[in-house]
Design brief:
This protein is of the alpha+beta class. It folds into two domains: 99 residues, Phosphorylase Kinase, domain 1 (2-Layer Sandwich); 206 residues, Alpha-Beta Complex (Aminoglycoside 3'-phosphotransferase, Chain: A, domain 2). It has nine helices and nine strands. It has a five-stranded antiparallel sheet with strand order 1-2-3-5-4, with helices on one face. It has a two-stranded antiparallel ribbon with strand order 6-9. The longest helix has 24 residues. It is globular, with a radius of gyration of 21 Å.
C-alpha cells in the first residue's frame, strides 16, 4: 500500500489534551477543536480555567515570526491594553514544536479572552473600540518587529501577483483589481509619509478578533502583525464596519463614534484621514492575495469566481461611499 504525503492534517484534540497536560503542568485538561483554517484553534479547558491552543499550519510562520508576535503581545499587555497573551510551559517555553505528518508545526497556548464576539455592537461600543485601538497605537508606534513590513511591495505587488496566478488576468474582475492596484500604488507613492506614523500594526482588527465583556474589550489574533503605517488598522476597521452594518445610518453612526473615540486618545493627521479610503483597499488587496495563496490549506471552501465578484462589489461600494468613482479609474 502506498502511503501518500499530507498537505495538511488536523491534530487529534484528545492527544493534544494529553500533550498540554504534560507540557503545562495542568492536573487535567480537555481539548476541543474550534476551527481549522489559516491556523487551527483548540479550546482547552482545565481546572485553572480556559485557554486557546493555536496550531500554526506548516510553513505559515517561522519560529522567529511567532516569537516576535509574542514579544509584541507582551509589550502591549505590559502597557495596559487587554490582549489574549501567551502562556509559558513548565520549562518557561512559549512555542511548542509538533511533528505532524506534513512536517513541523508550531503551537502556542494563549489566555482565553473574556466575553464574546458581537458583530452587532452598538455605536457606544464602537467608540470604546476606537479608544482601545488608539491606546494600542500609542504603545506600538515606533515599535519595530523582525517580521514583515507592510509596504507597497507586500500589500500591492506581491498580492496582485498571487491573485493573478490564481485567477489569471483576462477577466473583467481581474482588470478591475489591476486598476485598483495601480491607483493605490500611485497614492502610496505620493503620500506624505512624514505625516503617516508607523510602528507595529495588527492589520486584522474587526469584530471577529475581539471579545466584548461589558465595556471591556480584549483583542486577539495578532497572527498578521508586522511593521507598517498605523492608519492601516484604522482604515481596515472602518472598512469592516461598512460591510457588517448594511444600514447606512448604522454604519455612519458607528464610524463616527469609532473616530470620536480614537481621536479622544490619539489624533489622526490630515494625511492619515486622507489615506483612509486607500489604506483600507490596500489591506483588502493584500488579503485577497493571501486567500489565493492559501487555497490548499484554507480558502478552498469559498474561493472561486463568484467570491471574486462579491469581493469586488464590496470594493466598489467602499469606493463609492468614500467619494471615489469605481467606474472612472484613471490609471497613469
Amino acid at each position: 500500500m502506498t502511503q501518500f504525503p499530507v498537505t495538511e492534517s488536523t491534530l487529534s484534540a484528545k492527544h493534544l489534551a494529553l500533550f498540554i497536560v504534560g507540557r503545562y503542568g495542568f492536573e487535567n485538561a480537555t481539548c476541543k477543536l474550534l476551527r481549522t483554517g489559516m491556523n487551527h484553534l483548540y479550546l482547552v479547558t482545565t481546572g485553572a480555567g480556559q485557554y486557546v491552543f493555536r496550531v500554526y499550519t506548516v510553513n505559515w510562520r517561522t519560529r522567529l515570526d511567532i516569537a516576535e508576535e509574542l514579544r509584541l503581545l507582551d509589550h502591549v499587555k505590559t502597557n495596559g491594553v487587554s490582549v489574549s497573551y501567551p502562556i509559558a510551559d513548565v520549562n518557561g517555553s512559549y512555542v511548542q514544536e509538533l511533528e505532524a505528518p506534513e512536517g513541523l508545526r508550531y503551537g502556542v497556548l494563549f489566555s482565553f479572552a473574556p466575553g464574546k464576539k458581537d458583530p452587532r455592537f452598538s455605536a457606544e461600543v464602537s467608540r470604546l473600540i476606537g479608544i482601545t485601538m488608539a491606546r494600542l497605537h500609542n504603545i506600538t508606534e515606533g515599535f519595530q518587529l523582525q517580521r514583515v513590513t507592510y509596504n507597497e511591495e507586500i500589500l500591492l505587488d506581491r498580492s496582485f501577483e498571487m491573485t493573478s496566478d490564481f485567477f489569471g488576468t483576462g477577466s473583467t474582475e481581474m482588470k478591475f483589481v489591476k486598476d485598483v492596484t495601480e491607483l493605490l500604488r500611485s497614492e502610496y507613492r505620493n503620500a506624505d509619509v512624514t505625516r503617516l506614523p508607523d510602528g507595529a500594526v495588527h492589520l486584522d482588527i474587526w469584530f471577529d478578533n475581539m471579545h466584548l465583556n461589558g465595556n471591556d474589550i480584549t483583542l486577539f489574533d495578532f497572527d498578521f502583525c508586522g511593521n507598517g503605517r498605523l492608519v492601516h488598522d484604522v482604515a481596515y476597521f472602518i472598512y469592516q464596519l461598512c460591510f457588517t452594518n448594511p444600514v447606512e445610518a448604522d454604519y455612519i453612526a458607528k464610524r463616527d463614534a469609532f473616530l470620536e473615540g480614537y481621536t479622544s486618545v490619539r489624533q489622526l493627521t490630515a494625511e492619515e484621514i486622507r489615506m483612509i479610503p486607500y489604506a483600507a483597499l490596500g489591506v483588502i488587496v493584500f488579503f485577497l492575495g493571501i486567500q489565493c495563496n492559501r487555497f490548499d490549506t484554507w480558502s478552498n471552501i469559498f474561493l472561486n469566481e463568484d467570491h471574486l465578484k462579491r469581493f469586488i462589489m464590496t470594493m466598489k461600494k467602499w469606493m463609492t461611499v468614500n467619494g471615489l468613482d469605481p467606474d472612472q479609474l484613471l490609471v497613469s
